[in-house]
Each structure stands twice: as structure tokens, then as C-alpha cells.
Amino acid sequence: MDANRAALATAADLPLEDLSTRLSGDIVAPADPAYADARRVWNGMVNAYPAAIAYCQSVDDVVATVSFAHDNDVDVSVRSGGHSVSGASVASGSLVVDCSRMEWVRIDPDGRTARVGPGVTWGTLDCAAQSFGLATPGGVYPETGVAGLTLGGGTGYLSPKHGFAADNLRSIDVVTAAGERVTADADRNEDLLWAARGGGTVGVVTAFEFDLHPLDHDVVYFESWLPLDEATASLRTYREFQATAPDDACVFPYFGSVPTTAEFPPDRHGDDALVLAGVYAGAPENARDACDPFIAHEAAFATSFDAMSYLAVQSMMEHDFPDGRRYYWKSVPLATLSDPTVETLREAAERAPSTLSTIVLWPMHGAVERVDAETSPVVGRDAVAVANVEAAWDDPLATTEHVEWVRETCRWLRGEDSVPGTLPNFAGGAEPDAEAVYADNAARLRTVRERYDPGTIFTHERV
Question: What torsion, rounded to 10 degrees, do the Cα atoms 144, 174, 195, 76 define?
């Protein structure tokens, strides 16, 4: 039986009309005209067929939906922003708890905290916080959901200064597998908060509380585009820089293709390149001195250096990841950027089957590595950088080629230079198990799951 017919059969066996009478939101089942759109998510590679989608508008709706799933022995997946690259938010055969309509933000400027509903995107949270001259580390794409990114760790431009998004999570309100409402913070259900700080969760989070930090000035964004044969020398410099990099600097070199736009020399269009990119979150006048090796590099054929608002920086990639494109991402934390590892990265960039694909090195210095290992299940904090291998393509017939490019590149990077585990947000599809993602923290995560979800109804968790 294919996934579509299986979803129809599961839905037919469920008394969805009973759930409908308990919800203020809507339920969409496979036989409904709206189902084709409702089951789709941002990643066009995902083609899942859930048994039904329940649009929740309140915590009561979430309780009713999870309790219904528990009583009827049906798996649950949770969708908020819908940007889960692996598609875990719409698992086939599951009842989707869709929290996208629970979109609210409350800023406490005196306490420097934000309480956020599960349907909020980073663009919305950033705007609310910046209206008070505050910010918290988040993603680099404004349409990404706060919930999914935080529960998977969440690295961004402010991470060297303030840690992952998950490191700034103070408390959560959760509906557990039994339909119970609980709060997890430093004093209550601490194990559940620990799991939520990058290890996913064993329930539906209905409210997040974050620490906010002062950011009432412009930040600097810069890029230097270099020919690929400059990679070894430039990344040696980056390796040395990262050893003493200031917390204000988030320098993230990436391999990509030169766009066919007027900002770049026509004879470079389509070439493979190394881009020395970065954001400096300190006072803009200090950016050039702090990040001098990467600004207006002597070998660069295109450069930029601009002071702009944090909101402008956060929106720069707004059009780079359109809905419906196909994406497959995996990451490898690197203990060092040895010359052989740099050569592997360069060769992989040359082999990329799409000009849309990139390999990004996210720095792990500063606040990220200073976080007590006991406060979060995310591993790899002792890496110099995490290599994110990001395939993007449009042709559905080219999926195998792109997925294998990512997997093969990561296999090559795994070795003496790598650190166990990976960033949960960039763990690939559904295939990695807990050990592959969380290494020594996997067993502890299983223990938390057994306590709060003994029947394993939340299918998005890796076990």
C-alpha cells in the first residue's frame, strides 16, 4: 500500500469528527480538497502523507489533539514553521499537530526576556525584540520557525557572542504525550528543558521563553569572493583567526557558485568560489580591525562591507531559500581545518551537482564553546567549525545525485579531523540515529523520552 492510500486508510479508522468538535481550529484529512496543500512543507523534497492535520489555535486545542492521538494509538508529528529539512513535521501516517496559528510574542524589556508562541518565525521575533534594542541568537532566514530551529540547537550570527538559540532558552510550556500541561525551567522538570535545548522534545511546546541581549546599533556584514585556488591559504588564516576570534565576530566562509549578476565580473559568472563572509556584532567602527584578514582580501574579485541594522542582516537571505525547492543538508563538526580537510572541502565544492548548493563553515568559538556541557544535549562545541553541506536543486529527477553528493562529502569529512555527533538542525533526513547526532548524550535523551513519552507517539524523535 502506498503512503497516500495508507493515510486514507488510517484517517478512515480515526473518529476525526470527535476531535473536530473539541477544536477551535480546523482538521484536514486526506479526502479533503485542502489536503494537497496542507501536507506540503517548505522543502520540496518532502512528500509525506499524514493521516490528518489538526490546526491548533490554543493550548486547549493542542491538549485535545495530543490526547486524541494517545487514546487512538496514532503517531504525532508537530509542525510550526514547517521548515524541518528532514520533513519530520509531517510524517506519513501521523496526526500533525499544526501550531502555525499560535503566533504571538511578548517582550519584557526590563527583564530582557521574550515569551513566544510556537507559530512564530524568527523574522517576527527579531522585529519585536529589536523594537526595544534587544535580540537573541536565531536563524539566518526570517521565515524559519522559532520552535523547530530552537529545538534543534539553532546557530546564527549572534551565536559566538550569546550561544545557540537553545542556549538562551529559559523555560518552555509543554503538552506531554499524555495530554498533560507542564512547565520546564531551572526548577521544574529540568530534564525536559535540557532535552528541549537542542535535543528535540517529547511533547508539543506551546510557549518558549528566551533571554534577550542588548543590540541597539548597526552591525557589519562583509564578503570577499575568492578564486577556488585561494582556499587552502585563506582557510589556514581562518584556522589561526578562530583560535583567538572575538565573540563579536561570526566569520563563516562558504563554498558556492558565483551568481550571474552585475555585482560580479562576467568572466567569473558560474565559477566555483570561496567566500569569506562574516557579521561583526560589535561597534561597527571596530569591524575592520577585528576581521581584517577577511575584509577586502587582496585576491578577491568582488567585495562588500556594509553597516546595517540587525533586521537587515537577518533578511539578507530572504529570497535565497524559496518554498518548494528541494533541499538536503548534513553537517560534520571539525576539530581542525587541516590542509587535507580543506582539500576535501574544495574538491567537494567542485563536484557539487548544482550551482545552488553550498558548503558553509559555521564557527564554534566564544559563547558556544563556553556553555556547560550539562545544560544542553548538543555536541560538537569543541569543534573549530561545523561544515554544513547544503544541497539545493529544482529537478525532482536529480534527487539521488544531490543527496549522494551530501552524504559522500560528509563521509569524506568524517575522520581524524572530525568531532563525534552533528548539529541537530543539519542532521540530514530521517536516517541518522541518536548516536550519530548526539553521541554520548543519546542515552540520556532516551531516558527523558521514556519518562514523558513512554508510548513513543512523537515520531520526530531520534531513538
Answer: -70
Closest CA to 213 of 250, 180, 168: 168
Give yes or no for a contact between 329 and 426, defined as CB atoms under 8 angstroms apart.
yes
| CA neighbor of 226 nearest in space, from 69, 50, 349 | 349
CA distance linking residue 298 with residue 9, whole number of Å? 63
195 and 231 housed in the same domain: no
Residues 344 and 404 in one domain: yes
- 248 and 302 part of one domain: yes
Give the three-class secondary structure for 164: coil
DSSP string, 399-414: HHHHHHHHHHHHHHH-
Identify the pLDDT of residue 201: 79
d(CA 413, CA 422): 12
DSSP state of 121: B
Closest to 138 in 3D by CA, of 163, 172, 108, 118: 163
**435-461 per-position pLDDT tens digit:** 889 999 999 999 999 999 999 999 766
Residue 253: other Cβ atoms inside 10 A: 25
pLDDT at 85 over 80: yes
CB 10 within 8 A of CB 95: no
Please tell me whether residue 166 adopts helix, strand or coil conformation. helix
Give the pLDDT band (50/70/90) at residue 123: very high
Which element (helix H / strand E) includes 114?
strand 113-116
**Structural domain ending residue among the three candidates 153, 186, 215:** 215
pLDDT bucket at 412, cuts 50 / 70 / 90: very high
CA 99, distance to chain mean position in Å, is 17
Q: Is residue 282 part of a domain?
A: yes
| Long-range CB contacts for residues 63-67, cutoff 8 Å, separation at least 24 | 63/175, 63/179, 63/181, 64/19, 64/22, 64/23, 64/179, 65/19, 65/23, 65/95, 65/97, 66/97, 66/175, 66/176, 66/177, 66/179, 66/203, 66/204, 66/457, 67/178, 67/179
Give the span between the Cα atoms of 311 and 340, in whole angstroms: 38
